[in-house]
Specification:
The structure is a homodimer. Chain A has 9 helices and 5 strands; from the N terminus they run αβααβααβββαααα. The longest helix of chain A has 18 residues. The first copy, chain A, has a 5-stranded mixed beta sheet, with helices on both faces. Chain A is of the alpha/beta class.
Chain lengths: 181, 181
């Protein structure tokens, strides 16, 4: 997982990895404005690119997120995941689209680290099942959503520090229930 | 269905209806700012209140939509449906929450009438099944989403005029597929 940092460093890290099963990349507005050519070079080499709605619009110049996602897929990654905060997230490949609801929260204490926690939940689930099917990726996005929802309910890692597996599974089931019809 | 108009007129219409099975109400920013007491009186008497995210925030003064929805339920209706345009919609009762994705559209020609079309799809499905269960209401919201998605793809009623049942069912299935995990 190439966490958010200068894309030249991300590329440098990637060059040192031998035969990765999955390469996922994050970024931020700073690199889109200051290191765009280098960022586009890095994205070409990754399997999954995770970014938020503002970043997707910034990198493409396209306000419509469906169009923006397709443009980003053309940059090279096999899957693009666009996070929309309280509005959930969207995952695109050339032949699939998944809309994941947000976990409904009334109080958000601190959004710091939500994006990294989302990515960690996504990677962690996929590593645990060792399978990259569309079905596994969708479940990974729901677990990512669950993990991020806990993260924003306290400062730093306070909530994760006391988090139990049962609490994680319970929110996973809740997201299943709120999207069922 | 009390479509968007001065809430005093909505109330006047409602008084002339004998034993309705379901009363649904829409509104707009103008009545929230200019006729709020009368609007709150009307909402008390309806089963379902449909509004958009900006209106939900305006009527409650609460930026968090989950909290805003709970406040609106306290005003009297049994169900509140908050529409969020490209981000889909949310339905709340005292003991249920449903998150409905938007139908993904790359080109939107004219959003005029999308809210009325959404409400029409919701009412039409419920009238066709003559059943107000949570399950039926969720399906009604998905059909509402489908109908509104067609409406915004052309001006006036042009798209609806040539719309087929198969096209409606096809988008209903697509929404099922994009939210499946």
């Amino acid at each position: 997982f190439l966490a958010n940092i200068n894309p030249e460093l991300q590329m440098d890290v990637l060059k040192q990895v031998t035969g990765p099963k999955l390469v996922v990349c994050d970024t931020m507005n700073l690199w889109i404005s200051e290191r765009k050519p280098q960022l586009l070079e890095t994205i070409k080499k990754v399997d999954v690119f995770i970014l938020n709605d503002a970043e997707a619009r910034q990198i493409t110049g396209e306000p419509n997120l469906i169009k923006a996602a397709k443009m980003i897929l053309d940059y090279g990654p096999n899957r693009v995941i666009i996070k929309k905060g309280e509005h959930g997230s969207m995952s695109f490949t050339d032949d699939s689209y998944f809309s994941c609801p947000a976990y409904p929260l009334e109080d958000i204490l601190d959004p710091t680290g939500a994006g990294d926690t989302f990515a960690g939940g996504f990677m962690g689930y996929l590593a645990s099942v060792d399978n990259l099917s569309e079905e596994s990726c969708r479940k990974a996005i729901v677990y990512a959503t669950v993990m991020a929802s806990f993260n924003v309910q306290d400062f730093s890692l306070e909530r994760q520090r006391i988090l139990t597996r049962d609490e994680i599974e319970s929110r996973f089931s809740e997201i299943k229930d709120i999207s069922r019809f």
